[in-house]
Amino acid sequence: MEGSSLRAVGWARSLPLNSEVKTARDWAREHLEARGWTSAAPETVDAVLLTVSELVTNAYRHAHSSAQLVMAFDDHCLHVSVHDKSGDLPVPRAADTESLGGRGMLLVDATADTWESRPCRHGKSVSACFRAPDAMTRDVDAPTPPPHQ
Questions:
Q1: Which of 47, 52, 76, 124 has its CA 20 to 30 A from that of 104?
Q2: What is the pLDDT of residues 38-87, one digit of tens each?
Q3: How far apart are CA 15 and CA 55, in angstroms?
């Protein structure tokens, strides 16, 4: 678009393989609370936290890798990305009633507005986009106090 610019706010967190997935969820929730999403868009927050859980779990379980979690908010959506060291891209599978697992990407597909995976030089990144509710599309440059680490 002519005359438009992209403005974004973002956060990143490295999660070693021995970290708990709860650490990733708690970190994400703190940032969403700081942006006002937990009160303005609780259903979206639930979807984001489920996606964070699934993507970090996949990095640990399938890539046997630490996870790099990045959340970035622009004028249009919240992007949640997880990078791991495996080049194998995820593929949603048909749900198997006999299996305890294997539904993670189906959940991401059902809860995120869009998602994609792409190979990177040292592994892959899987990203999901969650459109911001109208009330949350305020100026992304507005100061937001950082949550505690």
A1: 76
A2: 999 999 999 999 999 999 999 999 999 999 999 998 888 999 999 999 99
A3: 12
Asked whether 75 and 138 are in contact (CB, 8 A), the reply is: no
Q: What is the pTM of this model?
A: 0.82
Residues 6+ apart with CB under 8 A from 67: 14, 15, 19, 24, 55, 56, 59, 60, 82, 83, 84
Alpha-carbon gap, residue 142 to 39, rounded angstroms: 18
Per DSSP, 64 falls in state -
Closest CA to 78 of 140, 3, 15: 140
- Rounded to whole angstroms, the Cα distance separating 58 from 28 reads 17
What's the DSSP call for residue 93?
A: -
Complete edge-to-edge strand list for the sheet that includes strand 77-84: 9-15, 67-73, 77-84, 123-131, 114-120
The string over 48-57, giving b where at least 16 C-beta atoms fall within 10 Å of a residue's C-beta and e elsewhere, is bbbbbbbbbb
Q: Which residues contact 142 (CB under 8 A, 6 or more apart)?
A: none
Per 3-state DSSP, what percentage of the chain is helix, strand, and coil (rounded to 5)? 35, 25, 40
